[in-house]
Write a structure and sequence with these properties.
about 160 residues; Nucleotidyltransferase, domain 5; 3 helices; 7 strands; globular
Length: about 160
Amino acid sequence: MQNSIVTVINRTKARFFVLESNEFEPEPSFNFTEIEALSSSTQELQGQELWSTTKPGRNRGTVGQAHSYDDHRDNHQIEFERRFAREVTTRLAALIQQGNPRQLLLIAEPHLMGIIREILVPELPKNLKLNELTKDLYQLKVHELHQYLTSKALLPT
């Protein structure tokens, strides 16, 4: 039985985990496994692959004088993050519908958590318990993540 879905998100990637209980053993035990990963194709592009110039806010004249201007890269970056948040939300909605979990644990960087929360919370079923942790834990291995979350009492041991 699927007890929890755990999602770890950073600016460019998301990992999805499930915590399942083993009901057939005399002592309750849990299996924590990674089921999927998702990447933002736009966010992973660097420099000239994404922008026409690599240095923001510079327009060089022929005489060597530079005029600064705002090329609105920050606005584009926020829009890229919103698109990725929508992709993550769509995938989470499908996982929730498939597994019917009791709990959803979202782990993301603080600025990204706000975007995810804004998009995801209205879509969640009312009986699903939502926990949030604003921290970047994407780099942790599966067993390290499980150990960390159990030490913080966010998941059962």
